[in-house]
Design brief:
Layout: H1 3-19, H2 26-47, H3 50-64
Length: 68
């Protein structure tokens, strides 16, 4: 079997497998939503922490005080 024939069969199998996917179920949406909310909460805590806030203020201050 040549590589070209093998690749054609592989792509055909991938297309067939992709067609069988009917989308996420309600429970998968719920888990995904909870995971996204948890990730957003962690990012919010990190960005609003003192160290990150100070670093952002420092970067913005240096950018505004830059000579032209």
């Amino acid at each position: 079997m040549t590589f070209k024939v093998w690749l054609r069969g592989w792509w055909r199998a991938r297309r067939t497998a992709a067609r069988g996917d009917e989308g996420m179920t309600t429970s998968e949406y719920a888990v995904g939503t909870i995971a996204a909310a948890a990730f957003a909460a962690v990012l919010y805590k990190i960005v609003t922490s003192g160290a990150v806030s100070g670093a952002l203020e420092s970067v913005i201050g240096k950018a505004l005080d830059a000579p032209f």
